[in-house]
Amino acid sequence: MQRRWLHWSLLGSVLILATTWYKVQLDDNGCINSDSVRVRVVDRVTLSVRTDTTFCAGDGVQLDAITNGLQFSWSPNLSLSDPNIVNPVANPPSSTTYQLTARIGNCFATDDVRVTVVPYPYVNAGNDVTICYNTSVQLNGTAIASNYFWKPQGSLSNPNILNPIAHPPFTTNYILTATDTLGCPKPGFDTVTVTMLPKMNVTAGRDTSIVAGQPLQLNASGGENYLWTPSNWLNNVNIANPVASINGSIDSIRYKVFVTNTLGCADSATLLVKIYRANPKIFVPTGFTPNGDGLNDFLKPIAVGIDRIEYFRVYNRWGQLVFSTTINGHGWDGKIAGKAQTSNTYAWVVKAVDYTGKSVFQKGTSTLIR
Question: Does 201 map to a domain?
């Protein structure tokens, strides 16, 4: 390599046979500055493009080359980030051979690389599905792959088959993952959502008591379609609110109602009806034991053949009102202002209207037993 110091005042052209440094010096009325440039001379353009490669469709791959070239041109320029740099990113839709031309002035060299596109493993987890509360569903995945598995696995009958039975505890996204040996080293994924509906809130009403021959209005809720069983004494078993007209031939009957909603989910509920062969009456126990054992803990009215209770009142021996209610079956727990009372006798009165519209009045005493 030679270093030559030249002074020139006009632009010109030179014939350079070897790599050379040129320096220019500027003198402007005694103010001097200088700069230099290296002109590299090569006998040929060297070029070696990267080896042929394979990539997963859509991911892209970076091309590259080892070269002393200064200008670059890739062809075809299909799906290249920049065809005029040495290392563009290629993302062709199908396998493509790219050729790189590297230039230094009028000298050039070419080389090519084959980019093979392979698809991700094909996987389809199936359509999203909605199921009833606490039920199962069969998943229906498809895959073109050598291996596949589902996650999460805990609620599946077999996570390593395409069509396992899923019994999710709640709404769950199941992910089907697949891998193959076709060239793409990355797995394919797809997700199916199994939406679990909330538990149906089905009720047949509270257990009740009636007198023989008293019409009883049943009231179920929680769905769209209803079926009562047994059908005995009911005017319509396929509605939510049939009327029962029970005679005195039985002491009690338990009705069960089956309910479905618009999606076909089903649930059921029951109620017990006790039948008394007597006139409408309000039963109040003569004694109660409010000790929290769940047995006879409350002094309460049990109305039979009664349409509504106007009042049920309890008084202590000094005539002080200690409890009052208008609700059948709602009673006193033996406490005054939260303080448990000792054993004693209490008076009660009750006024109600029976199912025929007649007024019913009763009174009596009951003993609190500790």
Answer: no
